[in-house]
Design brief:
Integrase_cat-core; mainly alpha; RNaseH-like_sf; 5 helices
Length: about 130
C-alpha cells in the first residue's frame, strides 16, 4: 500500500543515506505493526511515527477523512454489490482528490496542493499524516 502511494505521488526516496527520508504517521492498526511494513520502512529509510493508542486527535487529518467519506459517500448510497460500492468509492475518491477544496490545504484540492509543493517541499505547518 505504501509503495503504491509513493509511486502514484511520484515521491522519490533520496539515495544519499545521510539525507533524511520521509516521515509517515499512522495509528497502531495491524497493517502498520506488521514485520513487512516495518521492513519496508527500514529499507527505504522511512521514519514510521506511531500515534499513542486512544489518541485520534493526534491523527486528525485521517480521522477527518474517515468522517467525510462516511458522511458524503457511505451514508448517501445503499450498495447492493461489491462492484457497485467499489465504483462509488472510486468515484468519490476522484472527486475528493481532484475537485473538492480543503480548508486545511489553503482551499486547494489535494492534487493541486501536491503539485504546488512537490518540488519546493511542504510547509512544516502543513505536514500531512497518513
Amino acid at each position: 500500500m505504501l509503495q503504491e502511494a509513493l509511486i502514484r505521488r511520484q515521491v522519490h526516496i533520496p539515495q544519499d543515506e545521510s539525507v533524511s527520508s520521509i516521515i509517515i504517521r499512522t495509528d497502531n492498526g495491524p497493517q502498520f505493526v506488521s514485520h513487512d511494513f516495518g521492513d519496508f520502512c527500514e529499507q527505504y529509510r522511512i521514519y514510521h511515527e506511531r500515534i499513542p493508542t486512544k489518541s485520534p486527535n493526534l491523527n486528525a487529518y485521517i480521522e477527518s477523512f474517515h468522517s467525510i467519506i462516511e458522511r458524503e459517500c457511505y451514508q448517501r448510497d445503499t450498495f447492493e454489490f461489491f462492484e457497485e460500492a467499489y465504483y462509488r468509492i472510486d468515484e468519490f475518491m476522484e472527486f475528493y482528490n481532484n475537485r473538492r477544496y480543503h480548508g486545511s490545504l489553503n482551499y486547494l484540492t489535494p492534487v493541486q496542493f501536491h503539485n504546488l509543493y512537490k518540488d519546493e517541499g511542504y510547509p512544516e505547518e502543513m505536514a500531512i499524516s497518513l
